[in-house]
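I am going through a labmate's work and have reached the protein record below. What it holds is a sequence and that sequence's fold in token form. Please read both lines and tell me whether the tokens look consistent with the sequence. Do not assume that whoever made the record got everything right. Thanks in advance; the entry in question is below.
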Amino acid sequence: MSLTFTNPVQELTYQKVADYLQGSELFRSALRNYGDRPKFDILYGSALIEIEVLPWEVHPWEAGDLATVRATSCVTVGSTLDCELMQFLLTENRRMRFGAFHLDDAGQVVFSESVLGGDEMSLIELQTCILSVVTIADTYDDIIAERFGGQRARDRHPQAFSPGLT
């Protein structure tokens, strides 16, 4: 099955991300790519990072195709979704230099960060984006699980962290 892209910038960005990840000493040994969509997974420490190359269809400029790269990691599964947790996540978001906590459709606490793709995408920005998500997920999974219950994503979904990810 082949990949389809919404615009040429998304395709260019996907190729740049693939080349970087496959050549990276940090990530290539724990990399999985998807043959049917512009997405990668990386296992790094106790975090599983999903990296998606997405078209940016509604943006503030009149003309031009754009794409973004979004790195996301599930932090905890089954944490108590109450006002105390929401206050904690919003307060921590204010402290973040890049990225933010949010809840996914299943009510899991996740952390995401995005960078602009295309010709001008900096590989140091891409690496920083990925490593920021890794660091935050790895740091906050224990804090949130201890304070608000639930499990670290690694504990809840150990099959996702098994050898042979590549």
